[in-house]
Amino acid sequence: MFERRHLLGLEGLSAEEITFLLDTSESFREVSEREIKKVPTLRGRTIVNLFYENSTRTRTSFEIAAKRLSADTINLSASSSSAQKGETLTDTARNLAAMRPDAIIVRHPSSGAPHLLARHVDCPIINGGDGAHEHPTQALLDLLTIRSHKGQIEGLTVAIVGDLLHSRVARSNLFGLRTMGARVRFVGPPTLVPPHFAELGAELVSDLHEGLRDADVIMMLRIQRERMNGRYFSSLDEYSRLYCLSVEAVGKARKDVIILHPGPMNRGVEISSTVADGPYSVIMDQVTNGVAVRMAALYVLVGRRRGTEAAGEDVPAEPVPLRRAVAAE
Ligand code: NCD
What share of the chain is helix, strand, coil (3-state, %, to 5)? Predict the structure, then answer.
């Protein structure tokens, strides 16, 4: 069961809660295969997409998910919101909440923004990615993709490669994968793999080939240049010489390895086109599963919502691991 009011992160979720969300997602997967891709589950409900950062996949995926559940959707981006006129995030959210939406999905460059909103509005908040902190629905779709291909998550070795420091995808995956019993390796240059990740249960490896050895799953990450304000490696050329996932590097992993990437991909930087489009890639399955996971999240938080609990009742005070990540920068 999943009794929480918001979906802010995977940190602190139990294996039972994650399994419940994955099982629910699986049951929604079939709706997208129908000719008429719509169920009446959220008819009459209003879902707001509040996106303060660029996004193709995540925003579209949430919108498609909401529409397939028959909800009405409203999209607000930073450029079209009153943030441009100096309004604070909390005031924007309070005003939105006063129009009684049934859920707000928020993506924001500041870590902790969805947690702040969850304390100030009384509808469910879904974190669509906050700074370098968490991106729970991405990790859930990754877990669903892994579980579908491998049958289970427990006991697998998952290598997550690249810019770990700035990656909310990696952080949410670390929490989810560890809780589900996988072994997680963070692979990348030491400047992008800070040592505190070891405290959160990741093995840290700086050599790509060593990091990929016997991996069941490889997850490649983009270099998040928009979050880098210092120098983390000497040039992009050097980075790709050492860390680009080539056919040869894939050969170090298990024969039945699967390769994931949350997108957007920088072909030739972190992943070669041959690998991205090759037989081990499950990148498009991730995108398909994303819609099912977001339908499940909306259904669980909105469709089954009970009573009127006080706002923010299960909101953690602050995103702890993030603080450490920022301090490490
Ligand atoms: C990721 C994100 O925005 O955190 N992408 C996504 O949600 N599909 C990863 C990235 O931007 O590199």
Answer: 45, 15, 40
Query: Which among 138, 260, 261 is the best mutation to test ligand 1's pocket, defined by most ligand atoms within 8 Å of the CB?
Result: 138
pLDDT, tens only, 145-192? 999 999 999 999 999 999 999 999 999 999 999 999 999 999 999 999
Contact 184, 173 (CB under 8 A): yes
The tokens of 17 are what?
């809660």
Closest Cα to atom 7 of ligand 1: 58
pLDDT in tens, 58-108: 999 999 999 999 999 999 988 777 777 888 989 988 898 999 999 999 999
Give CA–CA dist 279/216, Å, rounded.
14
Task: Give nearest CA residue, ligand 1 atom 12.
Answer: 222
Residues 65, 291: contact at Cβ < 8 Å?
A: yes
Q: Are 160 and 185 in contact (CB under 8 A)?
A: yes
pTM attached to this predicted model: 0.92
Helix (H) / strand (E) element for 111: namely none
Q: How far is the C-alpha of 6 from the C-alpha of 118, rounded, in Å?
A: 7
Worst-scoring range by mean pLDDT, 107-111, 145-149, 301-305, 315-319? Answer: 315-319
Taking each helix axis from N to C end, the angle separating 89-98 and 113-120, rounded to the nearest 10 degrees, works out to 40
- Atom of ligand 1 minimally distant from the CA of 263: 8
**What are the residues whose beta carbons fall under 8 Å from the beta carbon of 1, sequence distance 6 or more?**
16, 17, 20
Atom of ligand 1 nearest to the CA of 222: 12
Residue 92 burial (10 A CB sphere; 0-12, 13-18, 19+): buried
Ligand 1 pocket residues where CB is under 6 Å:
57-58, 129, 135, 138, 168-169, 222, 224, 262-263
